[in-house]
Amino acid sequence: MALWRAYQRALTVHPWKVQVLTAGSLMGLGDIISQQLVEKRGLRGHQTGRTLTMAFLGCGFVDYPDALLTNYYLWPAVQLANFYLVPLHYRLAVVQCVAVIWNSYLSWKAHRL
Asked: What is the protein's major site of localization (predicted)?
């Protein structure tokens, strides 16, 4: 709980920086999930460069939180709940948490052999 409160404080003080780091971290996490749980690469087979690339891309697209999952069936329900139930400064985090699943799929799909 202390970590969540620290995140909330940081988000209030430095919203843009925290949102960039949140987006990049969760995009990287999506790739880690893809490599470890879906592709079952193990630690020796993990492609660190690929994870860093995905994290970097996540940081670069933070300005467009509403465009991350458009055109997918899940998105309208997520956005409906997000806009009605979630305070404004937490919306990007909610979108990114849902996007971890999507990012895992995209990473797996883009890097299939």
From this structure: membrane
Residue 7: exposure state from Cβ atoms within 10 A (0-12, 13-18, ≥19): middle
Instruction: For the chain, state the CA radius of gyration.
Output: 15
Q: Is residue 26 within 8 Å of 100, Cβ to Cβ?
A: yes
How far apart (Å, rounded) are the C-alpha atoms in residues 82 and 91?
Answer: 6
pTM of the model: 0.73
3-state secondary structure the chain: CHHHHHHHHHHHHCHHHHHHHHHHHHHHHHHHHHHHHHCCCHHHHCCHHHHHHHHHHHHHCCCCHHHCCCCCCHHHHHHHHHHHHCCHHHHHHHHHHHHHHHHHHHHHHHCCC
